[in-house]
Every structure is written in structure tokens, then in C-alpha cells.
Write a structure and sequence with these properties.
There is one protein chain. By secondary structure, this protein is an all-alpha fold. It has a single domain, classed as A middle domain of Talin 1 (Up-down Bundle), CATH 1.20.1420.
């Protein structure tokens, strides 16, 4: 039953996340926002919504390891697996704003989260508020100073859109329901699965649960690449990682302090997240190509595989 709940939860998150992205892009396109802004804000928030629901659900159930490692594992999966797979099949060109604003913002949120967690083995409500407030500032500066710096939205994303107002409302309601129950059953199945196989909740959450909640990011990125909207793809992943830390962990901690009960979260998982975050910069500037291609993507997938092996090779 626990495996069945896990599978159904995955499916619900996949469908709900997919159409929530479509609804969000449809609405934001009418505001004539740039593609990178859409990727870094609207798409990033909606693809991070499953992580938010799963982490809040886990925190309220007292499963703090799932609440934390769901976010850490998702950030690792976004850069190692999703970005890796995306760049294996399509070259992503990176503009100057990546170096000036996007990547520095992502490393800032990652280091801030690292400091808060290792300082006293918990993420307090005050620290959660700081993360969330930093996210608000990030969005403000992004829109104010860089809102008009990228190519205006065009019709190449038309296949992503739901142009009918009726369809938008219907799929918005359906997506929210699917995401809610998908998160509920995914957490329940993950906790039961961990108990059945005798592994910690931290292991299940940083691997299985994190992969499940990263499915919307993978779906959105693949669709964006197919439609040759690489700005949306890289923006979606960077923004999703920032939203995961700022809104998911931030809001979850505001609701209730998140206590680190499994020390492997600090000694291994968050270190891996920092590694994947930091390595993105040298990969982008290697040979001064300012792009990510097949070799970089393959390297990220291999590194992600090493991470997964390290997770399951330790006896919990």
C-alpha cells in the first residue's frame, strides 16, 4: 500500500505540476513579462509548489527530515539530474546576467541556509522569516532592475499556454487538488516505505521524494528546450532552487521550527547541494564558451549518480 501511495503521489504531482506551469505561463504572458523573468519567478514558484506542500505536510506530521531533505534533494536533482539531462539533449547558452545576478543569488541563499542549519542544528521561525524576506527582495530587484533586460515574450511558447479563461480556471483548481493529495500521499508512502526497509526518512526524502517533487521542473525544462526556449529552462531551475530555499524552507520554518534530527543532513546532503550549486559557475565559463552542452550535462548526471550511490551506500 505504501508503494502504491508513493506512485499515485508521483503521478498526481506530475500532472498537477505540469498544468500549474501551463496556467502560470498563460497568465504571465498576458502581462508581457520576459522569458527569463517568467522562468525565474512564475514557473519557478509553480514548479516548487510540490516541494512546499510536501515539506509543510511533513513538518506538520513531525517528519522534519523529510521537510529538510525534500528541499536539499530537490535542489541537487534540479542541477544534477534535470539540468544534466536537459543539456545532454540541447545546448543552453548563458547570458551575462547569469554571472551578475542569477548565480550569485542562488549561492547566497544556499550559503545562508547552510549557516542557519549548522549553527544550531535547526531552522527557527526567525531564520525562516529571513529566508522568505530575502526571497521577496530577490523578486523585487529582479523585476525592477532586470525586468526589461531580456527578450520579450513571443509566440514560441504557445504550446505551453492555456488560452481559454475557462480552461485556466478549471485546470488551476484541478492542479491544486492534484498537488495537495499528491503531496499528502507521497509523504505518507515515503514514511511507510522508510519504516518497511529500515532506512531513515532522510534517505528516502533526499532520493525518492526529492526526485518525485522535481518532476515538474524536469517536465517544464524539457518542454522549454523542445520549444527552443533555453532561457526559460535555465531560469526555471535557478529560480526553483532559490524558491525552494526561500519559500519552501522559509515558510515551513515560519509555521514550525525545523529541527535537524539526522546529522547526515549536515555532514553530507547539504554539502552536496553546495557542491552542485558552486560547480555550475566553472562549468559555464570553461573554455570561455558561456554555455552548457553535452559534456557538461553528462558530467552533472554522473556526479548526481555518485551522490545517489553515496546516499544508499551508508547503513542507516
Amino acid at each position: 500500500m505504501d508503494i502504491l501511495l508513493l506512485i499515485i503521489g508521483f503521478i498526481f504531482l506530475l500532472i498537477g505540476g505540469e498544468y500549474l506551469v501551463r496556467v502560470s505561463v498563460a497568465l504571465s504572458s498576458r502581462l508581457k513579462l520576459s522569458k527569463m523573468i517568467i522562468g525565474l519567478t512564475v514557473v519557478s514558484f509553480t514548479t516548487s509548489f510540490p516541494e512546499l506542500l510536501v515539506s509543510l505536510n511533513a513538518a506538520l506530521r513531525g517528519a522534519t527530515s523529510i521537510a529538510i531533505n525534500n528541499v536539499l534533494g530537490s535542489n541537487i536533482a534540479n542541477l544534477g539530474l534535470v539540468l544534466g539531462i536537459t543539456t545532454i539533449f540541447a545546448t543552453i547558452h548563458i547570458d551575462k546576467l547569469f554571472y551578475k545576478f542569477y548565480w550569485p543569488s542562488m549561492i547566497f541563499f544556499s550559503l545562508l541556509t547552510f549557516y542557519f542549519l549548522v549553527n544550531d542544528n535547526r531552522l527557527s521561525s526567525q531564520e525562516g522569516f529571513i529566508l522568505f524576506f530575502a526571497l521577496i527582495l530577490f523578486i523585487f530587484f529582479l523585476i525592477k532592475y532586470f525586468g526589461n533586460s531580456t527578450i520579450a515574450f513571443d509566440q514560441n511558447l504557445e504550446s505551453l499556454l492555456l488560452t481559454s479563461n475557462t480552461k485556466i480556471v478549471i485546470w488551476l483548481l484541478i492542479s491544486c487538488c492534484l498537488l495537495y493529495y499528491g503531496a499528502e500521499w507521497l509523504v505518507e508512502g515515503a514514511v511507510d516505505l522508510a519504516k518497511r526497509f529500515g532506512v531513515s526518512e532522510a534517505v528516502i526524502s533526499v532520493s525518492v521524494v526529492a526526485f518525485g517533487t522535481s518532476i515538474p521542473e524536469l517536465s517544464a525544462s524539457i518542454i522549454a528546450v523542445i520549444k527552443k526556449e533555453n532561457a526559460l529552462s535555465i531560469g526555471n531551475l535557478i529560480g526553483s532552487n532559490i524558491f525552494n530555499l526561500g519559500s519552501v524552507l522559509g515558510l515551513t520554518a515560519i509555521v514550525d521550527d525545523i529541527i535537524v534530527e539526522d546529522l547526515s543532513i549536515l555532514s553530507r546532503d547539504i554539502i552536496w547541494m553546495l557542491v552542485f550549486t558552486a560547480i555550475l559557475l566553472p562549468l559555464a565559463v570553461i573554455k570561455k564558451q558561456n554555455k552548457l552542452g553535452f559534456k557538461e550535462g553528462l558530467g552533472l548526471v554522473v556526479l548526481y549518480t555518485v551522490f545517489m550511490i553515496s546516499v544508499f551506500s551508508v547503513n542507516y
